[in-house]
Design goal:
heterodimer, A: mainly beta, 4-stranded antiparallel beta sheet, 11 strands, about 0% helix, B: 5-stranded antiparallel beta sheet, globular
Chain lengths: ~110, ~110
């Protein structure tokens, strides 16, 4: 599982409330990613990080912000949750070198009412 | 954003049959990855391919990195019930920090 945990695993919240999802890794990987997965859309990249305090936008970044103050933690924040952000959120880490690949966390199911 | 064309979108097969699925792209990739996702869980890496023409096996699974670097296929031999799930391909462009994903192939097995 590449030492990736996500918290919470499930969350139900109301429209307009702030929500923060946490991704934690234990293996010191430089790159971390946040995806959302919705029926009919597959996996879509929200934001990613290439180091502490270094982040960049993905293809569906509107309404989301991220922070990475430590190598091991990558936080995804919905400043004011909307129903369109109901989804399953996956964090991933990227291994580098000759075996460049991504490993995914177990996911967070978020429901915005 | 850019996407891979993964086919078929779904498959309904009998237990014991062989399965084949593929992904194609208009772009050249340096890396092809194949994942499997079970309900309620994150995608799990099955096979990673790093060289054009590379053929790699993982148990009953075999995947190949196309010679043109624009396609890849995954074969599953002698399917069993635990093979049920959604299979995703993903590709990485040279120098890119992001993966491009296929839409997935949903595999259903009739016992």
């Amino acid at each position: 599982d590449a030492g990736i945990t996500q918290s919470p695993r499930h969350k139900v919240t109301e429209t307009g409330t702030p929500v923060t999802l946490r991704c934690h890794q234990t293996e010191n990987h430089r790159y971390m990613y946040w995806y959302r997965q919705d029926p009919g859309h597959g996996l879509r990249l929200i934001h990613y990080s290439y180091g502490v305090k270094d982040t960049d936008k993905g293809e569906v970044s509107d309404g989301y912000s991220v922070s990475r103050s430590k190598t091991e933690d990558f936080l995804l924040t919905l400043e004011s949750a909307t129903s369109s952000q109901t989804s399953v959120y996956f964090c991933a880490i990227r291994t580098s070198g000759s075996t460049d690949t991504q490993y995914f966390g177990p996911g967070t199911r978020l429901t915005v009412l | 954003g850019q996407q891979l064309n993964q086919s078929p979108q779904s498959m309904f097969i009998q237990e014991g049959e062989d399965v084949s699925m593929n992904c194609t792209s208009s772009s050249i990739f340096n890396t092809w990855l194949w994942y499997k996702q079970d309900p309620g869980e994150g995608p799990v890496l099955l096979i990673a391919l790093y060289k054009a023409g590379e053929l790699t096996s993982n148990g009953r699974l075999t995947a190949q990195f196309g010679i043109t670097r624009k396609d890849s296929f995954l074969n599953i031999s002698a399917s069993i019930p635990s093979d049920v799930g959604i299979y995703f391909c993903a590709g990485q462009l040279s120098g890119a920090q992001k993966l491009v994903f296929g839409q997935g192939t949903r595999l259903t097995i009739n016992p």
